[in-house]
Write a structure and sequence with these properties.
The complex is a heterodimer.
Chain A: E1 5-7, E2 10-13, E3 19-24, E4 31-37, E5 44-50, E6 53-56, E7 65-68, E8 75-79, E9 88-95, E10 106-107, E11 111-115
Parallel strand pairs in A: 2-11
Antiparallel strand pairs in A: 1-3, 3-8, 4-5, 4-9, 5-6, 7-8, 9-10, 9-11
Chain B: E1 3-5, E2 10-14, E3 19-21, E4 24-26, E5 34-38, E6 45-49, E7 60-61, E8 72-74, E9 83-91, E10 94-97, E11 101-106
Parallel strand pairs in B: 2-11
Antiparallel strand pairs in B: 1-4, 3-8, 5-6, 5-9, 7-8, 9-10, 9-11
The chains are: A mainly beta, B mainly beta.
């Protein structure tokens, strides 16, 4: 596809369950980012991949959150033992390189997670 | 600490009126700043960046280091400008975002 694709678009789960959110970036983009956006707030950085490796995971809130990008393309954000406070829109973005000088990130439509 | 503040959660103006969306930042050094926009039912996208000094869709933004501001302006608002607008500041590999301003253009 032409843009960043995220699945599922909506996920409702129960507290304590495990969730996986998938991101398929624009082909050829080496940099991939996960952000989380709560209602009424701007996106909050979670993790950044350059190729297959997590170059910066300083935004992951705790060890229940984990993300992988095994082949340097598709990425999966994994949340264990979900809590109600994890409810948010999870945004994935990609860019052609790691440099943020251009500031242009290409975003997906997001995955809305609701934890009951 | 680096921070971006957008003081207005909501801004409502009439079509044809001037628009100014406020953004203030805290940063030591020469910042690069960006405005992103999210139209209804669309994804977040880059509107303009400070470094290019461009005008996109009639919008401009000037970096004022003295006031640490990067306000977004348009002289004559159009209905299609209604959207969420976010100001953002790079920090290493991430962007620091403001909370956003919802712009409503009234006909």
């Amino acid at each position: 596809g032409a843009g960043v694709s995220q699945t599922p678009s909506n996920k409702v789960t129960e507290k304590g369950k495990y969730v996986e959110l998938r991101c398929d970036p624009i082909s050829g983009h080496t940099a991939l980012y996960w952000y989380r956006q709560s209602l009424g707030q701007g996106p909050e950085f979670l993790i950044y991949f350059q190729g297959t490796g997590a170059a910066d995971d300083s935004g992951l809130p705790n060890d229940r959150f984990f993300a992988v990008r095994p082949e340097g393309s598709v990425s999966t954000l994994k949340i264990q033992r979900t809590e109600r406070g994890d409810s948010a829109v999870y945004l994935c973005a990609s860019s052609p390189s790691s440099a943020l000088g251009t500031g242009e990130l290409f975003f997906g439509e997001g995955s809305r997670l609701t934890v009951l | 600490a680096q921070r971006v503040t957008q003081p207005e959660k909501l801004l409502s103006v009439f079509k044809g009126a001037p628009v100014e969306l406020k953004c203030n930042y805290s940063y030591s050094g020469s910042p690069e700043l960006f405005w992103y926009v999210q139209y209804s039912r669309q994804r977040l996208q880059l509107l303009l960046r400070h470094i290019s000094r461009e005008s996109i869709k009639g919008f401009t933004a000037d970096l004022n280091k003295g006031e640490t501001s990067f306000h977004l302006k348009k002289p004559f608002a159009q209905e299609e400008d209604s959207a969420m607008y976010y100001c953002a500041l790079p920090k290493r590999y991430q962007l620091i975002w403001g909370a956003g301003t919802k712009l409503i253009i009234k006909p």
